[in-house]
Amino acid sequence: MKIGMVCYPSYGGSGVVATELGYALGERGHEVHFISSSRPFRLHRFHEQLFFHEVTDVSYPLFKTAPYTLLLANKIVEVANYVGLDVIHAHYAIPHSISAYLAKQMMTRTLPLVTTLHGTDVTLVGAHEEFFQLTRLALRVSDRITAVSHALARETVETFGTVDQGIEVIPNFIDPKVYFPTEGLLRRCRKYFAPQGEKLLAHISNFREVKRVVDVVNIFARVEKVVSCRLLLVGDGPEMNRVEREVLRLGLEGKVQFLGKQESVQEILQMVDVFILPSEQESFGLVALEAMACGVPVVASRVGGLPEVVQHGKTGYLADVGDVEGMSEAVLKLLTNDLRYKAFSEQAVKWARETFPVERAVIGYESVYQEVCEHRSLRSEAGGRRPEGE
């Protein structure tokens, strides 16, 4: 198939999933055309079946800002007509599914639209009701809808009502060839980050308020009083200044390192002991899965899709949002008992590989693509027949 993959290019779970899905589809012989405002940050390896089409900006005095939704719709039509796309796969309802819907209206042939919900599509309307009708339209005009967790599928129905075509859950995934434990890197890199043999804790996110990165610092501060350790903070975003101030307030500047945005997070995770994810909301928690695949137990919030990803008491621990003390105790349970840690680490790798393999996800999306394309063909055939009696 020829698949138009519409996604955000920035540092975040949806862009990662779209890109890694594209690579996996390319390996299976499909042609994948990424359509975005800039090259997705994980789209860095050349593959003969993967292509990138940039949505070019325009400057016109009438517009305060460039009308990206319209520009994206136009680019989708351009790519679809030029390469002969079979299906559009939009990651995020707003604005991608809306742009794809506009593109479909401009085309002379029917092009199926698959929308994958990643979370903010649904939770965004809680803060901005202006998006409610648009999101509901995106759900209604999509030929198929998928969600990355059962929790997100339920929340979508609770927010927008029953979706006629249903919501198929296809969990996010990991590639075990990329995410795996490795002792070699551990020995080489830990000498720099943990020169005295300290334990390493880590957090990776886009540093938005919902990620509660200040909680990560406070959890670390409590743990560090008991166990000698360091904290690696990976990413950047609007909460960075608050986090830096908290590190200074607690006098931890010599023990916390800010690594900024990083592409090869697996190389960081492979040398970490515990991963902390105290988010206020997570529709799935892809980075938690990536950590477990590298043998790193996770301490996270019991919210959204995280209980579907992290097995409490087996691959990590879950606590209520804001429970800094409970999460600190959970980290200490792991760091102060070698036998427990080894068991959690091994179970995390096994769980990630067996439950969330890339092959299962790719087969799931392939099935969705095939169904919407077959349905399109049936509709086209029906539309070409003369009614009986003519």
UniProtKB/TrEMBL annotation:
Pfam families: Glyco_transf_4, Glycos_transf_1. The keyword Membrane does not apply. Keywords: Transferase. Residues 191-351 form the Glycosyl transferase family domain. Gene3D superfamilies: Glycogen Phosphorylase B (3.40.50.2000). GO terms for molecular function: glycosyltransferase activity. It comes from the Bacteria. SUPFAM superfamilies: UDP-Glycosyltransferase/glycogen phosphorylase. Residues 11-177 form the Glycosyltransferase subfamily 4-like N-terminal domain. Coiled coil: none annotated. GO terms for biological process: bacillithiol biosynthetic process. PANTHER family: SULFOQUINOVOSYL TRANSFERASE SQD2. This is Glycosyl transferase, group 1 family protein.
